[in-house]
Design brief:
Blueprint (H helix, E strand, L loop, with lengths): L8 E3 L4 E8 L2 E7 L4 H17 L8 H15 L2 H19 L9 H13 L4 H21 L25 H7 L4 E4 L2 E4 L3 H10 L3 H5 L6 E2 L2 E4 L2 E2 L5 E2 L8 E4 L2 H16 L18 H14 L8 H10 L5 H8 L13 H22 L1
Antiparallel strand pairs: 1-2, 2-3, 4-5, 6-7, 7-10, 8-9
Helix pairs in contact: 2-3, 3-4, 3-5, 4-5, 7-9, 7-11
Amino acid sequence: MSTRKNDAQWMEKQQRWQIKVQKDGQRRTFYSSNPSRRGKVEAERKADHWLEVGSCDENIRFGSLWNDFLAEVQLTTSLSNYKSHELYGRKWLLPRLTKKRVAAITLQDWQNCLLDAYVSGLAKKTIKNIRGSITAFYRYAFKRGVPIVRPEFLDIPKDAPVKPKKILQPQDIKTLFSCDTVRVHNQEVEAFYIHAWRFLTVTALRRGELCGLCSSDLDNNILCVSRSINRFGEVTGGKNQNAERSFVLSQIALRILDDQSAMLKRLHIISPYLFPAEDGTRLNPNTLYDRWDTYRKQYGIETTLHGLRHTFISVVKSDMPGELVKLIAGHSTSMDTFGIYGHELDGDAARAAGMVDDVFRRLIK
């Protein structure tokens, strides 16, 4: 492996850092337009990486390398993750960068892709997701040894629209906990997923997490959330590294589980899942969403299925400390499954369950 013996120099005329290195008779020059000392480090890091790894892809075009990146994503991650990257690339990256050499892509090129999304009216969260795809592509290219600028300092426009979250209003909550039927073909029938929707509301679970719950995840009054089902029916570890958690269920949540169990028994449904599909198999989140859409429209409820989770966070935040909300909602550091019965579960988590009961008791009465 060749070792660099020189440092990057600031080129006043070009307003950039520059360093020239040589390996096996081949010379390369690396740059950084960042005027700070971080720019110097970045240029030297590029040079060091090339000296250590080298690359046969120094002239590869973005379109070609993006296809290779997608192939690896499809092979190593979930279909949902692949579909997201494919969509963002097809709509917002490829139109500008398909034929451009990856080594020639600048920070402004990346920023322009985000600005295209902003001008088209995309929500701030979606633009952040596009930036996430850019970062994931950078990591792939870097590991492959392709010279590429690190996508730092990419700005999300401050006035990019933020999609408002609609939560259940007090009357909506009373409706959800008192109306058990839905109209199908002009007949009122039992809403099979009524207990699932109520459980989402009082636990802040994501719908994929609820679909993945098994009877073995419940130990007395403690629920372990360790898996999630995505919209393609794949089992995943959850939305993020903090999604795996255990928490004490409130009394109202336990009553909902009892009602769910009684309904399954009455319908002669035997399943390893706490909230199965009507045939006892694993519930698909899309089905849960579609049935909720029918129910909410019938009763004049505007909240989406994911809004049930936001409802929980909104109604308890004034009564419950933020750290306890995170303990239940899965925004904090992951807890061990059923192994944590100490301070969190016996203390704060039990206190959080009591607070949930107090809040929803006032709302439902």
